[in-house]
Structure prediction request, 434 residues.
Amino acid sequence: MSTPVYDVVVAGAGSSGAVAAIAAARSGASTLLVDRQGFLGGISTAVLDTFYAFYTPGTDPQKVVSGIADEVVAGLRAEDAAIDRPNTYGAGTGITYDPEVLKRVGDGLVVGAGADVLLHSFVIGVQTDGGRMCAIELATKSGVRTVRAAAFVDATGDADLAHHAGAPYEAPGEHSALQSLSTVFRMANVDMARAQALPKEELWRLMREAAASGDYALPRLEGSVHRTPQPGVMMALMTRMRDVDATDAEALTHAEIEGRRQCHEYFRFLRDRVPGYEQAILTSTSPAVGVRESRRIIGEHVLTAEDILQARRFPDQIARCGAPIEEHHSGSDTRWVYLDDGATYGIPYRSLLPREVEGLLVCGRCFSATHDAHASARSMATCMAMGQAAGTAAALSAAGATTPRALGVDGLLERLDADGADFGQLSTPTTRGT
Prediction:
């Protein structure tokens, strides 16, 4: 079998990777998007149903992500498959959507941009030449396949390309406790009026009471239940699997099994003890457990909590974010730390560049950040913004026969601006998307 050659290969088709492939293909690069699932979207279609970080939380929400991300939302709204959800639980206004429609929207945008797609394919290795990535090795239904490219984007969430290429990274739990994993579940036949009338504080009180009774095993004593675009259907994000290294196959398998067990336990609690759920039925659990944190690369800049809380801006920033630090630690609650009302910080291009490996960009939740900073910037809208920057940079570097590290950032920012991305100029504050 001949070795396929592309300008850009994107590994991982989640929020960041799908957008990266769209951006690369629209920039004129021959592009391949690879994913281990049978559909695009990653966490956004396999687990969650709400985009956060499009807006800052606070008294006057500011929209801070645009560009290709807006096209994704527009595709959902065109099919009445997205609703704005108020800042009920603290992360800001969310855009709740139908994951099944999002799969088709993603298909249309990626294929429509001209990118090739290869699903059911796992990255099992990479090839380098003189410290520069030149190919990835995939395990596919057709056997092992090698794909060469001029530039690569690691959007795997677990920094799989960076790991195989020998780039430095912080291993899961190496210097700080890992954020917990969660499996979500959906219920139909819910009495929406009664369920939504219950304040979250009362829901949490009932949860504590149920756990104290000894009749329910509830490791997390808060969490969210919210409406979806479908009448009578609610989604619950309540489960918690603690201290799991999601890059360990056995540990991840155990978390998948435990997540489904917890989903049934929380559903039993809701049906037995919470108004509006008496006749509810459990319709689905997420086909994959939701991983918040695993490997994080060490890039040319490591984004820190100080960068976030001081609302720092950078000359090379390619996105901005105002989301709070939202840490799902191993306890029964969640730690929240907020920026000043309406403030945003920048994500520098350097945080997408792993040290010691050329020809590679990293975007999404495995980008270069500390544990606390990652707990803010991992939100899906921010990941889409990173993806647009990474895909565009990969295409530009391939076209210029250079590396992403050597790419002139001014040209990248000009292209992102022309393509409608909102990254917040350092010298002239942007008004786009507000």
About this structure: The two ends are 51 Å apart (CA to CA). Residues 366 and 431 are 29 Å apart (CA to CA). The chain is about 30% helix and 20% strand.
